[in-house]
Each structure stands twice: as C-alpha cells, then as structure tokens.
Amino acid sequence: MGDTEIKKLTASQRGKKVLAPNVYRTVQTGEDKVLLLSCDVHGAGIAPWDLNDRTAGAWTPPNEGAMGRVRELVAAEFAVERADKDAKLAEMERDARRRSGDDEPHAAAALAAADDKHRAALKVAREARRDWDRLLSSLGNRRPRPLVQPAERDGRPVAAFVLAPQPQEVAVHLQRYAVENLRRVGRRRGYDLVESLVASGQLSRGMCVLQQWRIQQPDEQVTKLWRMVAVTANNRALARLDIYGVRAEHLVTGMPQSLWPMPNENSDPRSCYSTCGKSLTASPSPLTPPAPGRTRAKSFRPTVPQRSLPCPRTS
Asked: Using CA atoms, how far apart are residues 23 and 13, in angstroms rounded to an integer?
C-alpha cells in the first residue's frame, strides 16, 4: 500500500523501515494466532467485501460450474444492452420516417422497411432478455461467492487472501452485485450513514484484510491486484466511497479516466495520479456535488482508523 493510502504503520530503525512497535499485536484464536495491525487508511482506499453476514443469503457457495454461468450471464447482459439500444435506434428511425409525411412511393417503402427493422430488433431484444432470465434462474437468482484462498509466500501462509482468477467483467459484475445487496440491507438503518460520516467522521475502528484479485486479460495474461477489503464495517466502507464519488469496482479494476480528465496537451496517464491524489486529499467528495439538503462538514477526516490484516500465523 502506498504512503498516501495507509499511515502510522512503520517507523525508522537504524535506517530501516520496520513496523512501529505500537501498531501490532497477536491474538490467540483456538490453536492459531491472529496478527492484528492498527493503522490509518484513506477513506476511499477500502473495498466492501462480499463475505458479509448481512448479505449471506444473496450468495451460493463457490462453484466452478456456477462461475461459468456467471460469465455467460455477464455476456447475456451485454447482449441485452446492445439489443435494447438497437431496438431504440430502430424505433427512432421508424418514427422519423412517419413524421416526414412524404407521400412518394419510395417513402412508403422506406417506412415499411423501418417498421420491419423495428419489429426484428424487438424480437432480438426479447430473445436476449429470455436468455438472460434463463441464466439468472439457473443461478437461483443469486451469485456464487468468489473462491477465496489463503495467500502463500515460499510455501507459508501470509497475512492476506487470494481470489481465483476471473475475467475483468466478471470481477466488476460480482463487485456490483455485492454492493447492490449491501445497499439493500442498509436501507433498514434509521439514519443516513453518509450524512453521519460527513458530519462526524468514523469514530470507531473497522477490521480489514489484504486481498489479491487475479484479473484475466483478453490475451490470457493475469493481472494481480492487491486491495484492502473490509471484514467488518462494510456499510461504512461503502458510505465512504459514496462520499468520495468512487465506485467499489473502481478499486478493483482501476479508476476510469473519464472521472479524472487530464489537460488536452498532456496525454501521459501517469499525470493523472497526482491529480487524483490531490483531489481525494483536498475534498471529501471531489467527483460528485452534495445532494440537495446535504452539506459537507469540514470535520470529515479522509483517513479512517482501521484494524487490519487478520491472519492465522504458523506456530
């Protein structure tokens, strides 16, 4: 994790960076020991986790066959989106022909062709929707949990988890699904969590763990991405992302450049890093204006105390 994302974790000792003595402790849990590190993490640096007790009913156990159907479901969603767009364009073309009011024979033929094109597009859209519904039903209207495994280094477990490889579009789909269900259960709260965090900041600690996403690229290469995910306080992690105008999948796949436009004369993507960092540090929400009736309090702290990295240690 970069120095701008996580703080108060290391100290200098004889010219070397080491863990600060007051940031870690071990806790006995049965026959294992758990290492806990206490640190301050940037409010937009933590992704909500799908392993959440409140949304457990929305998931099925990890299953390779079901994960294959998720890939098909994602492809079906793209097909539905394309078909709906084509149907809308065909409808607009037909309506334009009708408004033209031209009585020429070729105009009538063009209108009839536009009508046929629209009906064909609607048929394709209905078939695409049926395929999507069929795949969703085969999954029980739920999604399988991503397979989580302990990370290892030199054959020994380390303080992190690793996900099984998955295409980027599947990773985005599952992250959005997790957030959707987290928002659903969060609506039962009797107050506005975002407004509370903006007004008072996060006053209690949460627990996080490092997790590696393995994203399969179209060329079969696998990109390995380390991210910090919330084990507890998932709703607060999501609310902080809302405050900063960041989506959970952005933490997994990267921030779209459209949200961080660069000067026209500068086409180097690396120049976006400093702009992004300065904006997230300077303002609670640089990307989205406050909702009507909601103000941003200056007391909001961009760094949030977190108790992180729970890990079984070998004895």
From this structure: 15
